[in-house]
TrEMBL record, chains A, B:
<dbReference type="InterPro" id="IPR050101">
    <property type="entry name" value="CinA"/>
</dbReference>
<protein>
    <submittedName>
        <fullName>Putative competence-damage inducible protein</fullName>
    </submittedName>
</protein>
<dbReference type="Pfam" id="PF18146">
    <property type="entry name" value="CinA_KH"/>
</dbReference>
<dbReference type="InterPro" id="IPR041424">
    <property type="entry name" value="CinA_KH"/>
</dbReference>
<dbReference type="InterPro" id="IPR036653">
    <property type="entry name" value="CinA-like_C"/>
</dbReference>
<feature type="domain" description="CinA KH">
    <location>
        <begin position="71"/>
        <end position="144"/>
    </location>
</feature>
<feature type="domain" description="CinA C-terminal">
    <location>
        <begin position="149"/>
        <end position="301"/>
    </location>
</feature>
<dbReference type="InterPro" id="IPR008135">
    <property type="entry name" value="Competence-induced_CinA"/>
</dbReference>
<dbReference type="InterPro" id="IPR036425">
    <property type="entry name" value="MoaB/Mog-like_dom_sf"/>
</dbReference>
<dbReference type="InterPro" id="IPR008136">
    <property type="entry name" value="CinA_C"/>
</dbReference>
<dbReference type="Pfam" id="PF02464">
    <property type="entry name" value="CinA"/>
</dbReference>
Length: 309, 309
């Protein structure tokens, strides 16, 4: 045995020792002057496994008469942090337990609800009650819970559940919407495909947007967005089709400033919806925000019951 | 004046004071027992500006008779870290000044050359000499320098410089190649657009891949990749067209394991090239690596002189 290995096996005489099933160095807990010290191995993989397997149960036992803390994150899109906190002003001002902490992400806002009680069950009840109160006020903008769920994932799963097929026609976003959608495993069941019609000629020849639409209204127009979505839906024969056209920047186009965006959503047996935006980020930011808005348009459409199939 | 503001104006009697044009707290340099101490404001914006405007010139003056250090990062694709370091083994073993440090990134390898000399000019000469020696051995895989340049950006700029138009047909990558390409400002001059043919039907009806190709060879085949690239090039009438087909995972498809990928590059007036890969990452990782390989195929094609236009 190497001298170095021998040293790794040393522990404090009065300590509590934690085993290391995947490495050499042991973990120890010692107390001195009413303070507790945890000594854990350095490699993250070993540290994490030891913490999960030994340290967490040890601490739970040791502090079992203490309070439990539980958090849940609610995710919102299509509402700013200031509007959200204004609408929830009374709740936030009067918060004691649970507490409500707003956080402004890159394109969304999250609220973390944290409860503190004797047991996990009581915490959960407190969190769920607060969640219900919040959703009664701003539920329209709530798309999911947790730290992991993305808007694309939530929409992809809703499409799969409701068995609605979809296609896309992308101009300024250059395929970003579709590449986000295909992150959802199994999406090929409902996602047929799409066209990236970056140049005007591609919009006409490949996608089939009528020449007069582009000549009369330009490529950055609600009329062009509507035509793009409807052409994609026909080409791919899907229940839904979404289109994106606009100016990513940094330069303007057709005398429209960078950040001007039109998104259209075509439905089988229903009118095509179209929305205009004016974003003020950089080239990539405008594009990412456009894609998020597109996912949100689909989410709201799927929530509505008026989609005839 | 608040007491707190007054406190922020305090400095050491024997210190050298740095002004803070955008905040309250001043910076100070003091010496004690032959050690130098820098005291700087906490807010990153104030710290950074003070460091640039006052501290860097102060330190340069103070240590003007000291050595200069200069680094350059070389970026490689299509070669593993172990192969690269084996090929450069002698150079790396004998390194003194400049030093050569290899680093394995997610999909690429970088080498950092660091020189140490009396002046910046001497450093640059040393770095450039070492760079030339390295490129004489592994130059084929070198695509750019610096910490910022991406393979997509390098390829986009090469397409713009050589005025070669391009289109794409994407299956497993779902639009990721195109959304990376459109990050390059001005790319609309050469990038026409593309098709995301995710389902088999989209490959046939929208892209125009002959039914017998898919029936005989399947979608995950070199034959399908070639047909996809050639169909895209004809549809969009471009100089080049690239196609991606394969199995992103996690499940297999057509009895081909996850990670099986075919990439084809069609050229005006030239044979279509096709390459097969077997990646072993997760769904997103396989897709990202596929896109990088695609960009590298285009880069190598543009370096070759045999592209008739």
């Amino acid at each position: 045995m190497m001298q170095n290995n021998e040293r790794q096996a040393l522990v404090f005489r009065d300590g509590i020792v934690f085993p290391n099933p995947i490495g050499q160095a042991l973990g120890t807990y010692i107390e001195k002057n009413e303070k507790g010290y945890l000594l854990l191995p350095g490699p993250p993989r070993e540290l994490e496994q030891m913490f999960r397997q030994s340290v967490t149960p040890f601490l739970s036992d040791k502090y079992e008469d203490q309070q439990v803390i539980l958090s849940k994150t609610l995710r919102f899109f299509g509402i700013g942090e200031s509007t959200l906190t204004t609408l929830l002003d009374e709740m936030i001002r009067n918060q004691t337990n649970p507490t409500i902490a707003p956080y402004a992400g890159k394109y969304e806002v999250t609220l973390r609800i944290t409860a503190n009680a004797a047991t996990e069950a009581v915490c959960e009840k407190l969190v769920d009650e607060t969640k219900a109160e919040i959703l009664a006020i701003v539920g329209e903008h709530h798309y999911g819970d947790g730290d992991e769920s993305s808007l694309a994932e939530v929409v992809g799963k809703k499409l799969l559940e409701s068995k609605r097929s979809i296609s896309a026609a992308e101009s300024l976003t250059g395929g970003l919407f579709q590449s986000e959608l295909v992150k959802v495993p199994g999406i090929s069941e409902v996602f047929a495909g799409g066209i990236v019609s970056y140049q005007a000629e591609a919009k006409q020849r490949v996608l089939g947007v009528p020449e007069h639409v582009i000549e009369t209204y330009g490529m950055v127009s609600p009329e062009c967005a509507v035509a793009m979505a409807e052409c994609a839906r026909e080409l791919f024969d899907t229940d839904l089709a979404i289109s994106f056209t606009g100016v990513a920047g940094p330069d303007q186009m057709e005398n429209k400033p960078a950040g001007t965006v039109w998104i259209a959503l075509s439905k089988k047996n229903g009118p095509t919806a179209v929305q205009g935006f004016r974003f003020s980020r950089d080239r990539l930011g405008n594009r990412e925000q456009t894609v998020m808005q597109g996912f949100d348009m689909i989410r709201r459409q799927l929530m509505d019951s008026d989609l005839e199939r």
